[in-house]
Amino acid sequence: MRPGDLFAAHFLDHKAPGAPAQIAEQLRKSGLVTLDGLAARDAVLNFASRIMTISPHRDSDPDGLTIIRDTPRHAGRPGFAGLGNGRLAPHTERSGLPSPPRLMLLVCAQPAERGGECLLTDGRLMHADLLARGGGEAAEALSRPRTAYFGAGDGHASQVLSSHRDGRVSIRLRFDVLARWSPIVEPHLPDLQAAALGHQRSLRLNPGQGYLLDNERWLHARTAFVGDRVHWRALGDPRFDLEHGFAPVLDANQPPARVEALS
């Protein structure tokens, strides 16, 4: 599937009758909704407020929205890479919290002159990939409790893969300097990175376009860019029932086809 098809495959008209229920159902099924027609900040805030209880963030404005753009004053500071113009590795938003927000909304206000594409990884495909590697040793190690620590001194000890009583699985991950690993999982980090990058899909947003994702299923990243790239972001928990994580691929020995990793 061509990179541009990701937007069309997950698109919903948020202004259509019954749209909130359709959005909730699609998030339950695929964990991702793509959107258009959100060209103004007020439109982004109104949509986000209908879908989620917005969580304030260290970098957000009083209304809960965060402006994502290159702010040179944050250059080189751990945990502030999103406010630069460099490449971002696949990650879970706010992975260092005990309970990261379930939803992330990102909307383009102004694209970069060059680069700045969003990169999304479906954790369900990534999980199937890990189960198929080395007889599942990587997946087993990455499921052991407290084998990863995400965040600074006030971060959280957890694991990459968390299993729930109903058999569903959640993913929590980051690869930057704020990720620390147990010796149990260190041998499996190359497989983890390969799985995260191998299922990455590129998504270039035009003004007013965006995506809403389940933060327990999808990892997001970004290519480096040049120019004044501006996006709005909202984080929060859904105003509807949403089960934790995702249902694993049934036959882990036959994972979905991998796509070429992006450099």
Low-confidence segments, given as residue ranges, are 252-263
Helix content percent band: 10-25%
Main sheet specs: 6 strands, antiparallel
Per CATH, the superfamily is Clavaminate synthase-like
Report on this structure.
With 263 residues, the protein is an alpha+beta fold. The chain has one domain: Double-stranded beta-helix, CATH 3.60.130. Helices cover 20% and strands 26% of the residues. The chain contains six helices and 17 strands. The strands form five sheets. Strands 1, 2, 3, 5, 14 and 17 form a six-stranded antiparallel β-sheet that branches. Strands 4-15-7-13 form a four-stranded antiparallel β-sheet. A three-stranded antiparallel β-sheet has the order 9-8-12, with no helix packed on it. The radius of gyration is 18 Å and the shape is globular. The two termini are 18 Å apart.
Question: Brief overview, please?
Answer:
With 263 residues, this protein is α+β, with helices and mostly antiparallel strands.
How are the SSEs placed, and which strands pair?
Blueprint: H1 5-9, H2 19-29, E1 32-35, H3 41-51, E2 52-54, E3 66-68, E4 88-91, E5 103-110, E6 114-115, E7 118-122, H4 123-132, H5 137-142, E8 148-150, E9 156-158, E10 161-163, E11 169-171, E12 179-181, H6 189-198, E13 200-203, E14 210-214, E15 218-222, E16 225-226, E17 230-238
Antiparallel strand pairs: 1-14, 2-17, 3-17, 4-15, 5-14, 5-17, 6-16, 7-13, 7-15, 8-9, 8-12, 10-11
Helix pairs in contact: 4-6
